[in-house]
Structure formats: structure tokens, C-alpha cells
Amino acid sequence: MTTPLWCLLGFVAWSLVLLLAIAFARVGAVLTGVKKANEFPSGVPHGGDGYWRLNRAHMNCLENLPVFGAVVLSAAVAGIHAPMLSTLAKTYLGARIGQSLAHVASGSVIAVNVRFTFFVVQVACLIWMMLVIWRTQSGV
């Protein structure tokens, strides 16, 4: 299995870590009687600020996972094993985790700027990965 495919699995694993953190928070709130099981409306901010940032970090992962997956799977299907793809995939995954951690940690201006920087790194990695795939396939 290629490094980009391992990074794709890492992305899925990270998304599950965030999901489990949400689940633990919800189960804890229900078991302690703070909330009822039906008091977690989807798409509506509920709970404390940190809890909602965790929800948004998880949703950000789910929003970006298909895009990263499409790029990585395109390279895999095309049989492209360029070392640059591995470097970019690892950088992308690191930036994704960094963005999530910054998102969960704080809503401050500095945290938002850090989060945005990690996002820009991810976008740059995706564009660069697509260029590597295109150049490899087109012989440029």
C-alpha cells in the first residue's frame, strides 16, 4: 500500500477520533443527567463553546475527506508512486490534524489564523498532488 493511501486511512482514523470525542461528551452528558439523549439537535449549536468547536472540527474533516480521498485514489488507480505524492499526503494529513487541534483548542483570533494557515497548506497540497498526477499521466 502506498503512503498516500496510508494517509487516507489516517485521515479516516482522525475523523473517527473526533467522532469518539463527541460521542464521549454526549454519553457523559446523558449519564450525568445534564442532557437527555434527544437534546443534541443536528446543525444547531448546542453545548459549550468547546463542544461546538469539536463538532465543527469533525464536520470540517467530513467535508474535506472526499476531496483528499478522490485525489489519493486517483493516483492509486493510475498506479502513480511519485515520492512527492507521499510527501504531500503526509503534509496534508499533518495540516489536517493541526487544523482540527487548533479548532478545538480555541476560538481566539490567533487560533483562527493558525487554523486558516493549516487550511491553506491543505489546499496547496491538494493542488500540487493533482499537478503531480496530471504531469505523470500526461508525460509533461
Q: Classify the secondary structure makeup into a structural class.
A: mainly alpha
Count of DSSP E strands? 0
- Output the radius of gyration: 18 Å
User: What is the fourth-level CATH superfamily?
Assistant: Membrane associated eicosanoid/glutathione metabolism-like domain
Strand content: under 5%
Provide the number of structural domains.
1
Q: How far apart are the first and last residues' alpha carbons, in Å?
A: 26 Å
Helix content: over 70%
CATH architecture: Up-down Bundle
State mean pLDDT (0 to 100 scale).
94
Treating each run of at least 4 consecutive H or I residues as one helix, how many helices? 4
The assembly state of the depicted protein chains is single chain
The main β sheet shows up as:
none
Overall geometric form: elongated
Please trace the helix and strand order, writing H or E for each element. Answer: HHHH
At the first level of CATH, what is the class? Mainly Alpha
pLDDT < 50 stretches: none
CATH fold-level name:
Four Helix Bundle (Hemerythrin (Met), subunit A)
What do these coordinates show?
80% of the residues lie in helices and 0% in strands. The chain is elongated and about 60 Å long. It starts with a helix and ends with a helix. With 140 residues, it is mainly alpha-helical.
